[in-house]
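Appendix B, record 7
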Amino acid sequence: MTQTTVTAIEEVGTRTVALELETPEGFDADPGQFVLVRATVDGVEETGYYTLSSPDAEETMEITVEYVPEGTLAPWLAEREPGDTVEIEGPFGDVQYTGDGDAIVVAEGPGIGPAVGIAERATRADHDATVVFWGEEPPHRDRLDALESAGATVLLVSSLDEAADTLAAAGDATVYVFGFESFVRDAKTVADAVGVDDLQAESFGPR
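Structure tokens (predicted):
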């Protein structure tokens, strides 16, 4: 495990914070990959996986943490302050965006983190980017607004069927899916039905 320092923390949605961490020496990751976070909470060792929500990890990196009051590690992370330290390991995961090609990201809940990170990386490289979020009040609203101003497409849906036309028009874009198990399964079903060829998905497990 590697110890790293919290450089900033910001509330970005309902029971959701963005935790910015100093990038450890030799750490190299792309948006879509994830890290293991380990901490001792009330005398018990807790671990959790969190996907990067920053467009890169050059000097700092960010994870988006959704928490509930009765949780353990996530509420503990939400209470960190700049200067605190946390232990991480990684990066892990084969789902990653390296800045090549157009990207469509379909997400729910904390999946909005990697969605904005990938979209920001894509627009920075002059590629088309689309974020499809299942829900009415996504975290990272300010970053989504900035993405729209930069030419990206942001689509809020109440049903994944509403994303069918967007997915059908994917063309050469890679489709990324981030969310809990049932959401990922349903998104794959819609994508398969409209003929998406290039899809990468990361499931956060059962909700």
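Remarks on this record: The longest helix spans residues 112-124. The chain has two domains: 2-92, 103-203.
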